[in-house]
UniProtKB/TrEMBL annotation:
It comes from Chryseobacterium luquanense. Keywords: Membrane, Oxidoreductase, Transmembrane, Transmembrane helix. It holds the Pfam family adh_short. Gene3D superfamilies: NAD(P)-binding Rossmann-like Domain (3.40.50.720). This is SDR family NAD(P)-dependent oxidoreductase. The keyword Transmembrane helix applies.
Length: 241
């Protein structure tokens, strides 16, 4: 298994869920920009599941040497890479903040996934799981820079799924709503609309095994976003969402 964004609590919960279900991997490749935190997780799955892993440093804000990944052989890629950034008015007009949000959530991430997608295509097998966001379903004033990057990522995954279908490679788009993670710590989230990483992992694993195309972590978010997407623009632009 290849894990992009391996310090993500959802990614780690998914890895644990897969191992608990008896999935076997010769090696799990943990891509990260935080080696120290990832080493703790690598030690954890080694002790608990006797699972071998390898840590690979990947910083999406820097130049990437893809030749370093040539030896990696896998049939499953799980991408939980994400960066919420500063969603305040100050953050909106901070170009460094904007560039970082776009780079990490889309611009620098897509070429990495493409690199492994080509390998999967060559083998005519594999699954790519990408964590996008409900924020990408419609631009809202509270987080539209982040949402626009996630909208682009959702569109990319949709097109990749369409392209790879007859190459026997499946692409699953996951759209979490509110998540109780380090990234959202301190935000006023409605507990009824908020999933834990463990809940997310359960949902994603089921969707993976059923080869679903799109999965909302909590089904209620599918209904909420259906309503939001269909609000007429002349009304929507006046709302504080």
């Amino acid at each position: 298994m290849i894990v992009l964004g391996s310090t993500s609590e959802v990614a780690q919960a998914f890895v644990e869920k897969a191992l608990q279900e008896g999935e076997q991997y010769e090696r799990i490749y943990l891509f990260t920009s935080n080696r120290e935190a990832t080493e703790r997780f690598a030690q954890h799955i080694d002790v608990k599941f006797l699972q071998q892993s390898e840590i690979i440093e990947l910083d999406l804000t820097k130049e990437i040497n893809y030749f370093n990944f040539d030896y990696i052989n896998s049939n499953l890629l799980f991408c939980a890479t994400g960066y919420l950034g500063d969603g305040t008015e100050e953050g909106l007009y901070d170009n460094k903040n904007t560039e970082r949000i776009i780079d990490i959530n889309y611009a620098k991430l897509v070429p990495v996934i493409n690199y492994f997608a080509q390998k999967f295509e060559g083998k005519r097998s594999g699954t790519i799981i990408g964590l996008s966001s409900v924020a990408g379903d419609r631009g809202r004033q509270s987080n539209f820079i982040y949402g626009s990057a996630k909208a682009a990522f959702t569109a990319y995954l949709s097109g990749l799924r369409n392209y790879l279908f007859d190459k026997k490679v499946h692409v699953l788009t996951v759209k979490p709503g509110f998540m109780a993670t380090k990234m959202t710590e301190g935000l006023p989230l409605n507990p009824k609309l908020t999933a834990t990483p463990k809940q997310a992992a359960e949902c994603i694993y089921k969707a993976f095994k059923k080869q679903k195309n799109v999965a909302y972590v909590l089904p209620i978010w599918g209904v909420i976003m259906l309503v939001i997407r269909n609000i007429p623009e002349f009304i929507f632009k006046k709302l504080k969402l």
